[in-house]
Amino acid sequence: MFWLRAFSYLPFPVLYAFSDFCYFTLYHIIRYRRKLVRHNLKVAFPEKLQSELVTIERDFYRNLCDYGVETIKLVSMSAAQISKRMVYKNPELVGQYAMRGESLLLLTSHQFNWEWLLASGCLNLPLPVDFVYQQQSSRFFNDFSLFTRSRFGGFPVQRSEVARVAIRRKDIQRGIAIMADQFPGHANDKKYWTQFLNQNTAFYEGIGQLAHLTQYRALFFGVRKLKRGYYEAEAVVVAEPPYEKGSSLIVEGYVKAVEKIIREQPAGWLWSHNRWKDRD
Hints:
7-stranded mixed beta sheet; globular
């Protein structure tokens, strides 16, 4: 952690120069998951020319490397810095529900830079934020992730404990932040199948179950990259209570919102993740 902390104090121009070096190494030499990324893009965007797909592919790897140095930078970034670099387009949407005393489900996806989104949300949203996380196999990376995500006040909730913690903290007004576009590959994950990016895709059914349990309004935060090191988050309502047990309303609303932001900025999503390792 000492070396990451020291690295994080480097100015942004130096960090982005290192990111450029990482991009060249990762893309041209190591060729990290290029076959998977290329396949995912080709299936998701069959209407695009090969030249367009290659441009998206290269921009994705640049964004991935920027994401890496930006996440390390979180170790030492000030509240003012993160608030300047991740701005909210319509904070009044969350504000009006917070004024009513509502708790909310805050959904997002692996659209760069989701780590900055959580950090800035803890600082700038008018309610505290609980974030759901999956325990990582590496203790170092798990501890690093928890440190960066909680240093501005985020409250960690392990994914397997979400329901119990939601009940225990039901009297506390808060937002529960969830990235629900991972592959639901654990044995106890209940899957919901739907069309996503031209493919039959499994999503966590758990966000629907959590919505039914809490009866919280669900908002999706789409992130757009404005320029290098600067992002904008926009909230949209994807589902509103009351929810019936077994309802697919929230999952379908979430899937449509995720696909919309991906089609707007296709190089901003995590294409190197093996999202479609299972087929219905």
